Amino acid sequence: MVTLTSPIDVLYAKLGDKMKENVSLAPYTSARIGGPADVLIIAESADELAHTVNLLRKQGLDYIMLGGGSNVLVSDSGVRGIVILNRAKAVRFHNGDQPSVTAESGVVFSNLAHRCASKGFAGLEWAATVPGTVGGAVYGNAGAFGGDMAGNLIWAELLTENGHEKFTAEQMAYGYRTSVLKRAELDAIVLSAELSLKNSTKEEATVKIEQFSAHRKATQPPGASMGSMFKNPNGDYAGHLIEAAGLKGARIGNAEISPLHGNFFINHANTKAEDILALIQLVQKTVKEKQGVELELEIELIGEW
Fold first, then answer.
1. Nearest by Cα to 104 from 182, 164, 44
2. The one catalytic residue among 48, 177, 179, 192
3. For residue 5, what pLDDT is reported?
4. What is the pTM of this model?
């Protein structure tokens, strides 16, 4: 529990019931794993998100941002400090010869892709099975089926130390599953993003989504997971290397490397983060010994380890 020091008292005075103490983070992650946050603050809009972050900065308080909770592993001991839960979900469509959509950063990305298709817009079908939020996708250059955020982003509205700024895909300095934000080269949060679309038909866009979804269902496991655990090394696939190392189906506690896809770790109920971490270390050690490849995490470790 946080001792209510003066800066925290200021936050309570400003934010009221949007602040909660000693809240388990497991329900807010796709893996359903993780201990409590000392303080959880819920932001329901981009304006609330900006207001909250500005308050925290003014009080000199650090924070961790949580959106859809995919691509993260929260430690069993949780987070000592403040976690902001991003629930900013406004969406606006822009028609014309070059259509686009503006979405706040807490919008579930896969839901947005389906909404675009239902309105006859193409261009985001690749995102229909991508977990997480628009903000997380902008942050980590999410991608699938040959598409990625770098290919769709017109601009991202960021809250930097200078205030509200719009960054183009070029300014985001995207690489494979990384950006200027993920590399911590810029202290900023994502408030919203405008993404390019294409005029199409509901039927055509929906068929493509169904094809991608069927492929994903056939090749990736169901159940609670963080998404892809490791980045694909140059010229190979992490899942292939893990399978070749004989680790598919390996299990520690209730954590298992999926027998269907080696780059997915499954929570078989009440799994501990320390068991997931032990599997991560087992994979990295074994693949390094057998194939000479150092696998780099795609997920981020959050909390006290």
1. 44
2. 177
3. 57
4. 0.89
